[in-house]
Write a structure and sequence with these properties.
The chain has two domains: 2-172, inorganic pyrophosphatase (n-terminal core), CATH 3.90.1640.10; 183-285, DHHA2 domain (Diaminopimelate Epimerase, Chain A, domain 1, Roll), CATH 3.10.310. It is 37% helix and 22% strand. A hairpin with a 2-residue loop joins strand 9 and strand 10 (256-262). The chain is globular. The chain contains nine helices and ten strands. Helix 1 (12-27) runs antiparallel to helix 4, helix 4 (124-137) packs antiparallel against helix 5 (148-161) and helix 4 (124-137) crosses helix 6. The strands form two sheets. Strands 2-1-3-4-5 form a five-stranded parallel beta sheet. A five-stranded mixed beta sheet has the order 6-7-8-9-10. The chain is an alpha/beta fold. Bound molecules: manganese (II) ion. Residues 13, 74, 90, 109-110, 137 line the site of manganese (II) ion. Manganese (II) ion binds next to loops.
């Protein structure tokens, strides 16, 4: 049997590619199973997949030690108990591999590699899933890895199948569900301690921050409550505005708020928090 694996902590592209390849192989008389060995799945990816008719949780299963043949999608290296017989990936490398089937090309998504040009092998819903995976993997065609020809493919396929491009575009941005304002406080909540400072941060993606001022004001009162309850010295809210790909960082200390604006999508982990850490350590030395 073929066991199909996406990368660890699978994203929408890994999940969709695994599902589509499993179905494709089964339809061609091959026994294949897409397995997600991860115990934990990102909730937002699961919800998005569910809304497009597939349930990644059905594929969660631990890998048995049977002598299976493995096919990797959306990655190309993995330790498995068995042989890797195939790879379909879009992370080209200069490294050479001797897998029996190896396809690793520059493409906007693995699902795009699977389906583009082979649409007649897939159902309408499956083609839509491949478009979704492509939109999510490229932040709705904005990521630098997006291929011009794939943009054309997405748009033409939407026309041909009468898919709603605008909905795919919104879904591809992976906006945070802000139906409840406490999400500003809780989404992606992380705790840090630098020198003797206790710090927490949240991170959200929204569309058009200018329309969210009231929510942010309300959320700020929740942040101050949370800081008091948890004796925090600082709280940092990282907001990505996917309307114009800007970021706003809100720094809360017990008695004031400071805003910083960036004209790009800054990374909390590699830009913002390291700055905060440096400031804490400098302060500590004084
Ligand atoms: Mn991918």
């Amino acid at each position: 049997m073929y066991v199909i694996l996406g990368h660890e902590n699978p994203d929408v592209d890994s999940i969709v590619s695994g599902v589509l390849l499993e179905r494709y192989l089964n339809r061609h008389g091959k026994e294949a199973k897409f397995i997600i060995p991860d115990l934990y799945l990102d909730k937002e990816s699961v919800d998005l997949c569910l809304s497009y008719g597939i349930d990644p949780r059905e594929h969660q299963e631990s890998l048995s030690s049977d002598n299976n043949q493995y096919i990797l999608v959306d990655h190309h290296e993995r330790d498995v108990l068995g042989d890797i017989v195939g790879v379909i990936d879009h992370h080209p490398t200069v490294q050479k591999y001797s897998y029996p089937y190896y396809r690793n090309e520059e493409a906007s998504s693995t699902a795009c590699l699977l389906v583009k040009g082979m649409e007649e092998e897939f159902t309408r819903d499956e083609v839509l899933l491949a478009l979704l995976a492509t939109m999510v993997d490229t932040i709705s065609l904005h990521s630098s890895k997006t291929k011009e020809e794939d943009i054309k493919w997405v748009k033409e396929t939407c026309q041909k199948y009468q898919f709603d491009f605008h909905k795919l575009y919104q879904d591809g941005l992976c906006l945070t569900d802000l139906s409840s304002p406490d999400v500003y406080l809780n989404h992606g909540l992380k705790n840090y301690s630098f020198a003797d400072q206790k710090i927490a941060s949240s991170s959200i993606s929204l569309y058009d921050i200018s329309k969210k001022e009231n929510d942010i004001t309300y959320a700020s009162s929740l942040v101050f409550d949370y800081m008091r309850e948890n004796s925090l010295d600082q709280f940092i809210m990282v907001i990505h505005d996917m309307k114009d790909f800007h970021s706003t960082i809100i720094y809360y200390s017990p008695n004031r708020i400071t805003f910083s604006n960036y004209d790009n999508i800054v990374s909390r982990g590699s830009d913002i928090i390291p700055q905060v850490e440096r400031r804490c350590l400098v302060k500590d030395r004084k």
